Amino acid sequence: MGNGVIIGIDVGSVSTNIVVLDEKQNLLAKEYIRTQGKPIQAVKKGFEAVEKYIKNNPVLSVGTTGSGRKLAAAMVGADVVKNEITTHAVGALKHDKDVKTVIEIGGQDSKIIILDDSIVTDFAMNSVCAAGTGSFLDQQAARLGISIEDFGKIALESTTELRIAGRCSVFAESDMIHKQQLGNSIADILAGLCTSLVRNYLNNLGKGKEIKSPIMFQGGVAANPGIVSAFEKELEQKILIPTHYDVMGAFGSAHLANIQRPSKSKFFGLEAIDDDFTPSSFNCSDCGNNCEVVNLKRNGLIVGSWGDKCQKYHQPTEQQKISS
Amino acid sequence: MGITFPRFGTSHVAIGNLLKWMGHDVIKPPDITEKTISLGTKNSPELACFPLKITTGSFIEALDSGADSILMAGGVGPCRFGYYGYLQKGALTQMGYKFDSFIIEPPSRHPKQAYHTIKSLKKKTPWHTVMKYVYIVLTKQKYIDKMHKLVLETAPKEVGEIKSFKLFNEFVQKVEPVREVKSLKEIYQHYADKLYKFQKVTPKVKIKLLGEIYLVCEPAANLYIEKKLAALGVEVQRTIYLGEWFDGHVVKDIIPILKEKETEKTAKSYLSQMVGGHGQETVAQTVQASQQGFDGVIQVYPFTCTPEILAQGIITKVSKDKKIPVLTLSMDEHSAQAGIDTRLEAFVDLIYQKKLQNERGEALWVMGS
Q: Which of A231, B19, B178, B301 is the most buried (most CB within 10 A)?
């Protein structure tokens, strides 16, 4: 039997990440997997990839986060289920305890987290608008036939400042096409898009907030040097990018799971992840809400239900106790 | 055949009683469900606020189940609410519904109209009997409000499945047919004793819930925010209760000498002017929250609500000055459950961390799942 490990899982709309820490909080493994609308498969894939680290080591604690945190928790047996704001803050603090601002741009969500003296004092999250997120960049790169990895590099070659309408991604796209037809270079257009995405982010989320350094930039989009440089220009400050920028949610979730390590983890074991998980949904017609209730079945047995407003199908959850 | 009125928190008990006792057949507005909201949204202007959409939807449901008259409140001031009754009357008539419409304007501003509407509503009931009925239903409303306050206290202290809210609904059903003040008191005591038995753990934090009156008082409109917060271990204090609101806005408006200037005084350094709706109250109550030992403030309002948007900009400043965290939720028919849950949980985490750091000098991440 080896030393114990701690697992963090972040199930997002675009990517599913998994992080394995050893007992001394050293990172043993990290995996970044595209969710592609199939969170169950993505979690399974993630566990396949980190299997060798878990196989011979006892699992001490498991944390889940992201929009699919409840689903992942019901699948693997999690000890700590936390929202992505808190886990991203914990991740950032583990990297640098002095961090004052966290910029996080993910696939579908973007967030700003303001910290003071190692605690979160304010945050904002984009709601219905996706003009400032990773998937929009993905789409535009694909439309122009550029790989998302090259996107930033090409943008940095720009020599002329182009203004792209950034209020809405649909406006931005038509504006980009318009500028293309006028004969502007791809580099200038991409750089313009970076600037407009950053302005959109700062206007939407940063409004009324004091953005103080150290500023940390995390989420998949932090790999894009075009966006990083646009942020540095707009904020006139240096931006830090943590080593594990792409899996910070899972990283924070694992650290949180470590801090709140239970005497015995609820983890179901590696074999359980190979079980047959089938989500099924039905419309409850007991009242006018017509809720679409989703049941998660493990080998035919219901292990979790969501979506009902009246909580008729909810299993009683353990009420958090305050350890004081 | 019967009269209906908008669904608004628990007010259907008092309003329903009063109308029934004055000799009306009452079609009680049904519970607000997704169906109500989609009916209302379909038949309202896109940018109209959420309360208009919900009440329109509930009028349609009530008319479909046989209502032939509608009672609605009017209003004055910068908030668009005052037009709703007339707008809805037009929209519903255009849809082919035939009904009588009663719109009660504020008695202090439009005494003649208010008098005539109430006179035709009371039928043959003598005025002094009407006054007696009003007294009973107001007392009832105050007991319901009092019970609700107790529920908000006991719910976050429960361990396991939260039963307080269920008991509250039971209590409301129990008091509905009651006509004597004495039995109201007895039923209240019976349920209060049951609720006190639940108390087990200490709530983690205390939050004030404020904002636009409909979104604060109607759980179906604010996505049952009080229940969600209770499950997170939060003691909520709601700023607006219907009984108190009636005293403060209808009775005291008629007798100006009774009117308190407290709100205006408190808000003065931030907002010296009445901006419609509860904009000024929102600002004043945020200032007060910081003095009353609350750990945070949650403002709820319908998307596009002008008074509250004005207030939101100002309470951001109050939040900074008074060092009290503020979370703003603007809601409409699209408000996504999961997004709201994430924000609420993150906000409670934030407050709890701050509290731990202030109390123990360390920020432990000790919250449960």
A: B301
